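Reviewer comment 2.1 asked that we show a complete input and output for one of the modelled complexes. We chose the iron/sulfur cluster case, as it is the one discussed in the main text.
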Amino acid sequence: MQHSPSLLDSYSNSSTKRKPPMDDLADAPAESESPFLPGTSIQYAWDSTSIGYLKTCPRLYQYTMVEGWTQKHESVHLRFGIEFHKAIQDYEMSRAVGIGHEESVHDVASATLGRTVDWQSDHPNKNRATLLRTIVWYFEHYKDDPARTYVLANGKPAVEVNFRVALDFGISAHQPYLLCGHLDRIVTFNDEIFVIDHKTTTATPSSHAFDKYDPDNQMSVYSFAAGAVLHSPIRGVIIDLVQVLVDSNKFVRGFTYRTKDQLDEWIRDLRYWLLLAEVFATEGQWPMNDTACDKFGGCRFREVCSKSPHVRERFLHSTFEKGKPWNPLTPR
Ligand code: SF4
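Response of the prediction step:
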């Protein structure tokens, strides 16, 4: 597909004429309860993000989950990913209530422009114009997608599925651990059931682009959770990878599979990870995993952790601010 310079303008203009339906479809985020036991740093409600922090580095978990440090300056990549996911969610919700493809794309594009009107990004690949192009081209590419939205037992489409699963182990006899989160969509594909997830990248996907998702914490959480929601194991996760270039996009679809035995093992292992988290919280000590600092393009806390312990707090305050910590119990 060729880049259309008028794409952003055309949706910008029309956004003032039509009210997108997403305002009606989206649930207002509810004020959630704390995922921690009262008066402690012991977390009982976990999602893939918080488990990922813990497994990557306990100190990263402390800074983000326990203390709620966030970067003062918004990450372009994070904002782009959030907006892209939001657009897909809105589109799927719109289609699920019977609104046609063209109208849904139009409404989603208009809503995206409305949300990003103040977003200033000078990143050549990730900015407001490339976001809109990526959204519109993605919907065009998957317009006749053979992956069909699964219909739940209650007759509702499996779109925007929030889940809370009580595990059969916990902090005490009275407080089981909860595995929480959100599935964008559950689909049937070739008579098998999958969760669909989306990733954006500026790098060219290699032939091994999907190998890194097996094993992978997030994909195992999604597979386990969807199986719990449906009361039946699912096949795994479909990953729609979107490459965002300056003037075009590429779309690649990959699969990652999970057997019941693999998920049973993942849950068994999780029990030990959460036991460790409880020890860290009880001791008030979250050790540094200094083998993880250069992973995923470099940890955002590296500047802090590289300093002497007695001056770290000062560096934390100069680059980060205490915001609302990530809460797995907040529905999306
Ligand atoms: S810089 Fe390294 S030690 Fe510090 S939080 Fe990140 S991964 Fe952990």
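The first strand starts at residue 45 and ends at 46. We note this here for comparison with the apo prediction described in Section 3.2.
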